[in-house]
Amino acid sequence: MTTDHSCAPGDADWEREPDHSDSLGTFGAVVQALREHAGLSRVEFAERVRFSKHTVESVELGRRMPDESFVERAEEALGDTGALRKAARYLTRGEPGLAAWFRRWARLEKVAVSLCTYECRLVPGLLQSEGYARALCENDIPPLTDEALEATVAARMERQRLLRERSNTTFDFVIEEAVLMRRLGGVDVTRELFDHILELSSLRNATLQVMPADSEHHACLAGPVRLLETPDGRRLAYSEGQENGRLIADQKEVSRIQMRYARLRSQALSPKDSAGLLERMRGAL
């Protein structure tokens, strides 16, 4: 998957499976070996490092880049030998869990000075809670392997670090109200999702607007879209379907999409009213 709306957009295995990274695989094997030598199960180790069992598993299988706090807590839990700190210096990021056609856009996201997203199908990936992302993958047809599912969820959570780490990048989201009405994964998952969206959209560099379901006007009926601006001032767009995605660089086409998005923002609820609606929807669960 790993685009925002699906979990495994392609049928071919090379589109589903994460890119292999020798450094991540080696680091994960070392963590697993030290954990087993210490006599700890993944659940016990997860409690000590204060990360989920799924995160521990993803790190050990080389599917997830461990952050600094994971490395430090793992060191303390496994004898404080310094081996993990030293090994972590040689880690390189791959692009696990990302669909082949989405990878270029994902790289552009990391350097963009602004990102705009309109979604009419599902909550955008940058705003998804882990439970919601997992529910998406569990509903995918044909079913994902356990490894592909975990890689996809891990990649989604990794992408969300952009909102906190790139505080000088603006993130604007417009989401259809109907998307928020869907109870994917059940009430508990939806409640967690709403809390997650409210938390992220309260960041000073993020804005959330909801497009009301009863609106008589709509500028983006052609479908979901993303827009970004690069540090050198280039404007690009991205459009996605069921089994493919398209990076749009033609400036006339990008301009048309920008006009639609700008009009859509004027038609959607204000950020304050959008947050209020989301809070009311959460309270009604």
Would you write up a description of this structure?
48% of the residues lie in helices and 12% in strands. The protein contains 14 helices and six strands. A six-stranded mixed β-sheet has the order 3-2-1-4-5-6, sandwiched between helices. Residues 1-20 have low confidence and may be disordered.
Question: Top keywords for this entry?
Answer:
single chain; 285 residues; alpha/beta; 6-stranded mixed sheet; 12% strand
The strand line-up of the biggest sheet is: 3-2-1-4-5-6
Strand element count: 6
Distance between the termini: 29 Å
* Beta-strand residue fraction: 5-15%
Write the layout of secondary structure elements.
Layout: H1 13-16, H2 22-37, H3 42-49, H4 53-60, H5 68-77, H6 83-88, H7 103-109, E1 114-119, H8 130-138, H9 146-159, H10 161-165, E2 170-176, H11 177-181, H12 187-201, E3 206-211, E4 225-229, E5 235-240, E6 245-248, H13 251-267, H14 271-283
Parallel strand pairs: 1-2, 2-3
Antiparallel strand pairs: 1-4, 4-5, 5-6
Helix pairs in contact: 3-4, 8-9, 8-12, 12-14
